[in-house]
């Protein structure tokens, strides 16, 4: 499923989930309420730059740290539609897939992106930055199916109900 939005560049490599959503807020469970704490230990001013439909543009090894799902869940609660990066920590990538948040590694698109540009993610292997197309690895069929269902819980429910 194609996802479109507006770029917001998050500077730096090795951005840790523990600073994107600090442990002090792990007891908050409502994604809309969680949104007020996104990036709290990293750069809280990033929250002020979020708009509905933001697509984050990130560096290498984004999402290292703990395996908490809070970060992609909070991103969704903040109106973020996807993440385009140079590379991702494995568990962060999988948490995004499981929660239905579009995610793709495409270094060339990261190089081309700037705040405010239009971004489109097509999980079949394309990222567009302001109308310029970049090739990206295509998501495997299961990842496409999970994303189309809205996440792993909804996909699993559909599989059970047959």
Structure description:
The structure is a single chain. The protein is of the alpha/beta class and 162 residues long. A seven-stranded mixed β-sheet has the order 4-3-2-1-5-6-7. Strand 6 and strand 7 form a beta hairpin. The longest helix is centred in the middle third of the chain and has 10 residues.
Q: How many domains is the backbone divided into?
A: 1
| The CATH H-level homologous superfamily | Aconitase, domain 4
Helical residue percent? Answer: 25-40%
Helix/strand/pairing category? alpha/beta
Bin the strand percentage: 15-25%
- Lateral arrangement of strands in the main beta sheet: 4-3-2-1-5-6-7
Radius of gyration: 15 Å
SSE run = EHHHEHEHEHEEEHH
How many DSSP-defined strands? 7
3D shape: globular
CATH architecture: Alpha-Beta Barrel
CATH topology assignment: Aconitase, domain 4
* Distance linking N and C termini: 22 Å
Multimerization state: single chain
Main β-sheet description: 7 strands, mixed
Number of helical segments with 4 or more residues = 8
Q: What is the CATH class name?
A: Alpha Beta
């Amino acid at each position: 499923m194609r996802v479109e939005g507006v770029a917001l560049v998050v500077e730096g490599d090795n951005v840790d989930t523990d600073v994107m959503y600090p442990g002090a807020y792990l007891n908050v469970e409502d994604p809309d309420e969680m949104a007020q704490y996104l990036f709290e230990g990293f750069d809280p001013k990033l929250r002020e730059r979020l708009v509905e439909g933001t697509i984050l543009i990130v560096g290498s090894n984004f999402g290292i740290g703990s395996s908490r799902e809070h970060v992609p869940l909070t991103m969704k609660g903040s109106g973020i539609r996807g993440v385009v990066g140079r590379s991702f920590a494995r568990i962060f990538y999988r948490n995004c897939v499981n929660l239905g948040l579009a995610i793709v590694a495409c270094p060339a698109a990261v190089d081309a992106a700037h705040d405010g540009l239009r971004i489109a993610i097509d999980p079949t292997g394309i990222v567009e930055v302001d109308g310029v197309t970049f090739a990206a690895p295509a998501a495997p069929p299961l990842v496409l199916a999970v994303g189309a269902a809205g996440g792993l819980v909804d996909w699993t429910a559909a599989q059970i109900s047959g």
